[in-house]
Write a structure and sequence with these properties.
This protein is mainly alpha-helical. It has a domain at 66-211: de novo design (two linked rop proteins) (Up-down Bundle). Helix content is 78%, strand content 0%. The longest helix is centred in the first third of the chain and has 61 residues, at 32-92. It is rod-shaped, with a radius of gyration of 29 Å.
Length: 222
């Protein structure tokens, strides 16, 4: 209700200002003073309208940037989810006794990949990483797994994906910071409140460079 009232009030003030300008112009025959006042009021109303429209469009552009950067993260997350089954199958070939852990990894991966809501996807994605760590650490107990070329390649692919997730997350967080600053700054805050633009949240997702172990294929962990 408050937001609708503020928006209606802004529109009404612009319309009234512009209308008064037109009225004064129509009274041109009564003297040049009315013409000047009318032109000033009409210009004032027009400029205000253009400023508000410009602010609104600017906020929308930044909001769209947030959505675009979020989609970049989603693309990289999908690559991570697509890689997990291959990694599980490779580990399974050497660590057949770890069925429970492998099944849990697949379950979390499927939950994240099939989630329709962003918060559910992120929650499952964050739960998946510690289990991936446990699974990858099995390579220390299975030297033949560590020496497997497919396993090495999958680890390289995972590292590359995680680097891209980190880069995409930085872009997202930067866009969020600029957007939040924009909607809090006067007079942008007037338009933001009236149009219902709310503060955006930073991306809360774990990345593998902080959670996953760095396997040394020369025999030592880093």
């Amino acid at each position: 209700m408050k937001k609708n009232f503020e928006l209606s009030l802004m529109i009404a003030l612009i319309v009234v200002t512009f209308t008064l300008g037109v009225v004064f112009i129509c009274l041109l025959n009564h003297g040049s003073t009315f013409l000047v006042i009318g032109v000033i009021l009409a210009l004032f109303g027009f400029i205000n309208a253009m400023v508000l429209i410009g602010i609104n469009n600017k906020i929308i552009r930044y909001k769209n940037k947030i959505e675009e950067s979020l989609s970049l993260i989603d693309i990289q997350l999908k690559l991570r989810f697509d890689l997990v089954p291959n990694l599980v199958e490779t580990v399974k070939g050497y660590a057949k006794h770890e069925k429970e852990l492998l099944a849990e990894v697949i379950s979390l991966r499927n939950n994240a990949a099939n989630a329709t809501k962003e918060n559910e996807k992120l929650e499952n994605a964050n739960q998946l990483l510690p289990k991936l760590k446990q699974m990858i650490m099995l390579a220390e107990d299975y030297p033949t797994l560590k020496a497997d070329r497919v396993f090495k390649q999958l680890m390289d692919d995972l590292a590359d994906i995680e680097d891209r997730i980190v880069a995409a997350r930085r872009i997202y967080d930067s866009n969020v910071a600029m957007y939040n600053t924009l909607i809090k700054t006067f007079p942008n805050s007037i338009v933001a409140n009236a149009r219902g633009f709310e503060k955006a949240e930073l991306f809360k997702i774990d990345t593998a460079e902080k959670v996953l172990p760095k396997i040394s294929f020369n025999g030592e962990n880093k």
